[in-house]
Amino acid sequence: MAEKKTLQSSLVSHKPVDDGTFCVDDEALQRLSAVRASIGQQQEDAKIATGVEKTMTVRQSLRLYRWAIIYSMAMSLAVVTEGYDLAAMGSFLGYDQFRKRFGTELDQEGNPRISPAWQAGIQNGIQADSIIGLWANGYISEWLGYKKTMYGALLAAFCFKFLHLFAPNIDMVVAGSVLLGFPYGIFQTLTVSFVLDMTPSTIRPYLTTYINLCWVMDQFVAAGALRGCMSLRNDLGWRNPVAIQ
């Protein structure tokens, strides 16, 4: 007859006996009680911390979470990069310098222009890949952490932007737009999740509003850069705004 094996449990240790009685070791019960006591203390500490955070004033939050607020505001500036690019690329489609360089057809007056199909590719390419970045950010930030994910997204956006800066044809412009959508999607979600996780509830409305303010800031920066380079009648008219980014 095969020899009976001793069964093990992750919670308690027990040994089957032939008389049908199920016996539990005293040492296993003590370990289980100690674990449950620790969990109860952790739950109590969490309730106290939550209550203190909800009753904290804005001034107290600024003093106790100073560095968390500074880091969240610095990370939110990545949204300026994304908004600047979206505003600039949309304006480039009407730029004479840009149309002369990348025009795919002629209008009724014989001037080069970019066809609607290519315009849709430039504008929607960023949005399409942003969806992937929005989805992937949760997994990447959970794996690498907020800071490393942000640093990697900034590095990727910096490298992909060279495709726009040195684009020889319209195909390269569309490719750069599609690739830039991935880090831009990360920027949109990582900034908000960082604020919600790292700052107290009393200061979160101000910091999330600051993220929206960054979207407004990039519109002013892009408008100024485009207006300043409008007088340039060569490729620098559109390359300089890209380089400013």
The fraction of residues in strands falls at under 5%
Radius of gyration: 29 Å
Q: Helix proportion of residues, in percent?
A: over 70%
Please report the number of helical segments: 10
User: Which CATH C-level class is it?
Assistant: Mainly Alpha
**Overall structural domain count:** 1
Low-confidence stretches: 1-14
Order of helices and strands: EEHHHHHEEHHHHH
Across the major sheet, the strand order is 1-2
Distance between the termini: 78 Å
What general form does the structure show? elongated
Query: What is the residue-averaged pLDDT?
Result: 79
Membrane topology: Multi-pass membrane protein
Main location: membrane
Keywords: Membrane, Transmembrane, Transmembrane helix
GO molecular function: carbohydrate:proton symporter activity
Structural summary, described in words:
This protein is mainly α and 245 residues long. It has a single domain, classed as Up-down Bundle (Growth Hormone, Chain: A). It is built from ten helices and four strands. It has helices spanning 26-55, 58-64, 66-76, 78-92, 96-102, 116-144, 146-165, 170-198, 204-229, 236-244; strands at 14-16, 22-24, 105-106, 112-113. Strands 1-2 form a two-stranded antiparallel ribbon. A hairpin with a 5-residue loop joins strand 3 (105-106) and strand 4. The radius of gyration is 29 Å and the shape is elongated. The N and C termini lie far apart (78 Å). Mean pLDDT is 79; it is low at 1-14. It comes from Epicoccum nigrum (Soil fungus). This is Major facilitator superfamily (MFS) profile domain-containing protein. Residues 71-245 form the Major facilitator superfamily (MFS) profile domain. One of its GO terms (cellular component) is membrane. GO terms for molecular function: carbohydrate:proton symporter activity.
